[in-house]
Amino acid sequence: MKRATLLLIAAAGTAAAAAWFWLPVHFAGAGGQPALAAHAGAALRNGTAGAAGQGDAKSAADGFSFAVGGDPAMPSAGQRPAAAQESAEEKARKQQLRKLGYQIDARYYRMSLAELREQARHGDPQALTHLAERYLFQLDGHPREPDYEPGFHYREEAREALQQAYAAGNAHAAAMISESYLLEKQPEEAAAWNVVARRAGDALSADWFLKTKDYQALTEQQKTAAALRADQLMQALRQRKAKP
Length: 244
Hints:
Blueprint: H1 17-20, H2 36-46, H3 51-61, H4 88-100, H5 106-109, H6 113-121, H7 125-139, H8 154-167, H9 173-183, H10 187-199, H11 203-210, H12 213-216, H13 220-242
């Protein structure tokens, strides 16, 4: 796997590209579980997140990454047919996705891990977001990866990076944290972060979460506890934002 061109093919690889581009980009897999980690992890482990995977992501996602999937720099296989002119509604929808933080510039995918960490250290929200992606889907649990560091707490560090990204303006980072907990079978903590995502304006991901079986299995008491937990998280995030 080429480090500089590694790409997270995230979200719903099992859904039709035309459909998932406009949805919250997190689609449920078998049993109502999100397909994001399973698809991304398989792509990275099998080496399909390289050039061919990037082309597929480009044709499906038109430049959106993580949960919308794809490296906007990579062309699809062959020449793509001329795209139909976008409607004003479509343009507004894409603009909203970008504003929420669903898009990562292609250059971050070409960075080495050291370069990405350096950019993240300076508080770059896109670098922080993609660093979290690499931690979660390229490196966590994959000791054969060249950049793997034994003893490094990838999941915790990924969530820390995403919290920093949120504080730096990436509203979608809260939904990414939510999904990471959902994949770990911690639905109550996932629900709390989902409340944060909704309050941040990321209704696309927040609405998707409510349809998962894990969320629907929560009791009213657990949902209330999640809302209270979200209050604590929001306070902590506001304090992060207030720091110089």
